[in-house]
Amino acid sequence: MSADPHGQPFNLRFNRARRAERDLSEMLGLVKGVLADGVVTQAEAALLKQWVSGHPDAAEQWPVNILKERLERVFADGRVEKAEQRDLAELLASIVGGKAGIIAGEDAACELPVDRPPPKLNWTDSVFVFTGKFAFGPRSDCERAVIKLKAICERGVTKRTDYLIIGTFGSRDWVHTSFGRKIEQAVEYRDAGVSLAIVAEEHWVRALPRG
User: Fold this and answer.
1) In this predicted model, what pLDDT tens digit does every residue of 128-180 receive, in sequence order?
2) Would you state the torsion angle of the CA atoms of residues 107, 111, 117, 123, taken in this order, to the nearest 10 degrees?
3) 8 Å CB contact between 138 and 87
4) Among candidates 148, 152, 125, which has minimal Cα distance to 208?
5) What is the pTM of this model?
6) 192-195, Cβ contacts within 8 angstroms, sequence gap of 24 or more
7) Do residues 16 and 57 make contact, with C-beta atoms less than 8 angstroms apart?
8) Residue 208's closest CA among 128, 96, 138?
9) Taken in order 72, 144, 31, 35, is the CA torsion positive or negative?
10) 11, 18 contact by CB (below 8 A)
11) What are the beta bridge partners of residue 199?
12) How far apart are CA 203 and CA 118, in angstroms?
């Protein structure tokens, strides 16, 4: 059996997972430093982008992968606008456990009624409804991403809805919010036999075509 330089069994998957975990801890420390004054400057955003680019194992993991995509979109025009700085600060605060918490994704709270296993997503002419706060960006960005794929976006859950996408960040007490009422309506339709899927943001992001 092959061994690493220390004579230990060479398990690429295990080593990669450990590196990603270590890198994630490092990134959280960096994010807390960036947020120390409550704002994200263009230089700080550039530092985060550089860090993510230099840590490919972590960049494949949630939520670093979504931070990577957000930074790429922010820097697409070569600068970080004030509104983008505010959005980044909110995203980073959520990642490190600010007012919002991660409620969807691989470690989704068990009470969220997402479809398990998650469905294959179809785009053309499918009706999407987004609810909650999204790591991907403002809801308008999420809607544009699927409209480009010839999907349809609506604000409320109806029997026409094909997919309700639940944002990663939100109150754990979601059931008492307007966010929660959309989910409850979707569950009622789904339980009544309507062809409607409830999907966590992470699965939706992974399904989006790249490029």
Assistant:
1) 999 988 888 889 999 999 999 999 999 999 999 999 999 887 555 555 566 67
2) -90
3) yes
4) 148
5) 0.66
6) 194/159, 194/161, 195/162
7) yes
8) 128
9) positive
10) no
11) 165
12) 7
- C-alpha 198/C-alpha 8 separation (Å) is 44
Please report how many Cα atoms fall inside a 13 Å half-sphere around the Cα of residue 100, on the Cβ side.
Answer: 19
Q: Which of 52, 78, 48, 77 is nearest to 65 (CA)?
A: 52
Pick from 114, 108, 118: nearest CA to 172: 108
- Encode 18-32: b = buried (16+ Cβ within 10 Å), e = exposed: eebeebbeebeebbe
Place of tokens 């002419």: 125
> pLDDT tens digits, residue range 69-103?
889 989 999 889 999 999 888 888 877 764 444 44
The domains located in the chain, with CATH, are: 12-98 (no CATH), 127-207 (3.40.50.10190)
**Is-contact 170 135, C-beta < 8 A?**
no
CB 201 within 8 A of CB 134: yes
State the Cα–Cα distance between residues 180 and 171, nearest whole angstrom.
Answer: 10
| Owner of token pair 């456990």 | 97
Largest Cα–Cα distance of the chain, in whole Å? 60
